Task: structure prediction
Amino acid sequence: MITTRIGLHKTSTYRLLSHFVRIYNKPFNPFTLTKHTFTQNLSTIVLFKSNKRYFSHSIQPTMQNENEENTTKQTANTQPEINPENTPNDAPPGYMCISEGSAKVLYKKQIEVFYNPVQEYNRDLSIAVISDYILSQSQENRKRKGPIRILEALAATGLRSIRYAKELPDPKVIISNDIDQNAVDSIKLNAEYNKIPAEIIIPNQGDASMVMYQNRTPDKQFDVIDIDPYGSPSMFLDSAVQAVVDGGLLCVTATDMAILCGSHAESSWNKYNSIALKGQYCHEAGLRTLLSFIEAQATKYKRYIVPVLTLSIDFYARVFVRVYTSALESKKSASRLSSIYQCIGCETFNLQPLLKVATKDKSIKYNASTLNFSSTNCPHCNKTFRVGGPLWNAPIHSPEVIQRILTRVTEKPSLFNTSKRIIGMLTLANEELQNQPLYYNVSSLCNVLHVTSPSLAVIKSAMITAGFKVSEAHAKPGSIKTDAPPEVLWDIMRCWAKLHPPKQPLPTSPAHFILSKEPTIQADFTLREDLKTSNVARFLPNPSENWGPLTKAGKRGNEILVENDKNEGGQGSSSGGTVVVTPNMFNQNADRREKNQGKNGKKPKRSRVCKAFLNGDCRKKNCADLHELPPDFVMFGTENENNQNNNNNTDPNVTNSEKGKEKEKEKEKEEKKQRV
Result:
């Protein structure tokens, strides 16, 4: 009757009761309790289940202390009163102050809203790009008058919106949206805490896609839309390309780099309508896959994109594109997309455009492209190709925008805590060959031939001497982008293999087919003096160990916030405050690895003795049980049976294995008698 009243199955009820015993550390008998007490205790267990507090050691065993704890939680959930005279470092009770840039954000000790300090570089870079966009609007004769309208579709704590309000040029209006009521309350609280006028930051609770769909008319569209989800942004892009003004800026983050880099081909097709291949160039291919999907969403509405800045950063991709409206340019979309053919042996790739555009006498003709290679096997190692794509084959950066941002950040490095990293990565992106999609990794090429890897400067010198252009790639250290065809690249590697001969490769290996051909050019590996060198650090180390993504909000335990005076890049904070981070955020990745250590390894052998071995008839090839008798071995069975066996064993020198052999001989004799 009790289970029917509270709507739980009998099995579920006893499971909850077992958790009650685990929490309160005392025996529990539901049949001795009254109906009221049972319902009260059971609701307490359900409450603990929803908060994931099964294993908490701070819960007292009395109902009175539990009620006090619930009262404390209710008090903590209410917003504190903000004193206008408070300085930014004076946080209300129950809150900690997170300082980033010029913003001070209140953060509860019991985390309810997602915050990741790793993304500070993302936010700094976004402010730099959006600031350049706002300053360039006067030169581009902006059609719509009034302030710049910015939408942060997934605001969480509101930290990004507050930094936009305090650090972007005026005038602007920021709509800070989130579907979670706790996040909206946090945005209101932090906006008031930072003394930002209500007309600049407008908190809004709603589904991100619906908010953008409701603002897709020209008079309501946004100048800037920032989408920074936890995982894939694919579900928001259809509404985003409609809700941004003509020539507006769309900022997109994707943290599912494993899918974009080809670890799960089926998921990449479901989310991005593209087959991502896993290879040495996978990080840039993931960026181009994301751009191709944004382009595909825009062309449905006679729009097209122009990438401004596209970067692969740590564990995520950050893309800045301008969205324009033009029926003519949207028809050329397929010419900016390509299928990719990758060799399964040497990983040489070949891009095949989907469409050819021919212009003649002011007329444009669109034709399907033809294959630019004849054989189905790789001409270098004789292996087969795998097919992927489509992906973006046009430039992914705007050199003019990058140069303006570099000039601004270099002149004022105190603008951001991560200025040193911004300068290094944008310098590398600006030096890339814009018309050469994807890159080659020198270590991967040497791994195919089983030769020692040369320095990057040596390979670059050989290519420049051979008459080709070459640059480094920002997506992966030790990688090069070049306009040299794959034949020339492998010829240079053959010349290197002659100077550093490898061991004899297998006849079926890619190295055998590649090295069996003579090089058509003679590579010169002398270091050139005209190689561009600068003192800019391009690839900076991570500020701390286990630097990476965090779990979703609501899936973490309580974390203690501490102060960290060491800023990234060795530069001081522009706001003069302390940077507050949670050390537990980065330790959880290490804990997860330690927990899963050896999880997929070989299972240890069981410690029990094989029963069939004792009987002398174990016929298993790889038996999991022991075939040896430990010194403290006790025969299987009850104590009486063991005592009887001990009494029957008159000879103490006869071991159990010898007894098994005797039984086996007796069985063989009986079988012979039956045959006779």
Q: What stands out?
A: The two ends are 71 Å apart (CA to CA).
